[in-house]
Amino acid sequence: MKKIISVILAIAMMISIVSVAVSAQEEKFDLEFAVASDLHYNPPREELEGPIDDPIYWYANRRAAMEDESGFIIDEFLRQCAENKNCKYVLISGDLADDGRTRPEDHRAVAEKLRKFEKETGKDVFVINGNHDSSVESKTTFELFKEIYAEFGYDKAITEPRDDCSYAANLGEKYRLIALDSNHPTASTEDGMTKDKLNWVKEQVESAKADGRYPILMMHHNLIDHMPMQRITSRNFIVRNHFLTAERFADWGIKLVVSGHEHCGDGATYTSALGNTIYDFAITSLTMYPLAYEYFKLNDDVITYERKTIDSIDYKALTSTVSGYSDEQINLMKADFNAYAKGFLKAGVQYRLALGFSKEKMGIDEDAIYYGVVRTAVDGLVNLLEMPLYGENSLSELALEYGIELPETDYKTGWDLATDLVAMHYDGCEKFTLDSNELQLFFKAVVTILRVDVADTADALTLMKAANKLLGTDSVSTDITKMCVQMFGTYSAAEYVIMAIVSPFVYMFINDTDGIDDASGSFPGYGTVNVQNNIANIKANVADIINGSATHANLVIKYLLKALLVVLTAIK
Prior knowledge:
Number of helices: 19
Number of strands: 12
Structural class: alpha/beta
Low-confidence stretches: 1-25
Distance between the termini: 90 Å
Helix content: 40-55%
Largest sheet: 6 strands, mixed
């Protein structure tokens, strides 16, 4: 019996040892590195000042970036990379300093942080410029940028110096980094992709392959759409002719691209007609919510990536450098720094949007004949956004007057909802359906706000004022709208037609169905090959297009039929 037990134990130990060995083998990677983007470093102020009427985030700014804390966030990022023994390299895909074009001293401050990191850890940093960093006409020229960051990629370049800031350098034994300057030489934000740059990338890929290395591309602008029709809705944040460029890059042999610029944490894929898939990771701004960077691990079989966040900073150093923080602010930071950053972003976004409603931003002259009407519309919109969503004197009560029932949520105001949706975009977690509470609340709140605001604006017209006085009512427009609701239903045919037009776009925005998780996941490594033939690849691409088109067509038909039903009901 004892012999049997001994044999069983021995077998169990052998299985355990083999399992550990297999696990260790599976977890062996040839290359590991961290990627941060859009550091937007700002030198901390001596004392906080702020224009926002908010008990906590009164010092937030229209960029919604944590400017005074930025240097301390960068320090914490580098500290995490230093503590990670397997992290051999740090990549930064542009916008190192917020005012980098005009303040080279800010670049020098960032470079000093990177220099200290390299000296203390022996790890290498590789940077590329962003649209905030340099231009041929700014104080920080391309040459000065390369001089300031000479130790962070340019000193390891295996390529000849260029007029722009591009270079290529080896990463470990099997990979080569192609750092591409995707910026326009003068225009801010706009991409500067040219035939010369494309040819240069192709040359570097061919050179990497000849040396037995896999190419990894880093640039500031996005390669693939990270929001619906990005080239139209946010055209300066993505390279021109992006589908054709992605097709070329994929077929040349590039599988992994890291970019930034859009400030959203989002992974996207594109598969060429030949079946080669390329992955573009837009890395969110390090100094904005969600205060994140990506950590990559690569071998021939698989590439894994993991979202990592900055959950704390050196608060003692912060308060000793910048005065004006309250105990409540510091305690909230210590309790949940990421949640604090989200509140800061929401306050900044609200401030920026509210600024857009000012007569100065809108270019409205107070002497203009239409000033009163426009001012009424804008003020009414702002008031409705600030109104509580639930309870007495709330938007819910107004909505019920128009036959609209707002779903119950934890949101407090319209601003709270709107800015939270923006925060979700930055976080890259837009995993909703059109029937979700968040989207239903958004749509129904928008309809309510439009109805109330349009009625109030109409009543501001001289003719309507006279009609109200003649009929002895507060608002003829409101009365007519409510009467139409009672006669024809809660939503008008026109509103359903608008939904038919808008819903496919909204669906693309909220449903990230490209098959790759934005925050953490894995995909096939450079050593894997496409086993399908070209016909199968083309069929798969066509099937994806047909399925997507069918979904969008279904949404359009659904709302058009509802519009038709309203019209038929009215005719009866």
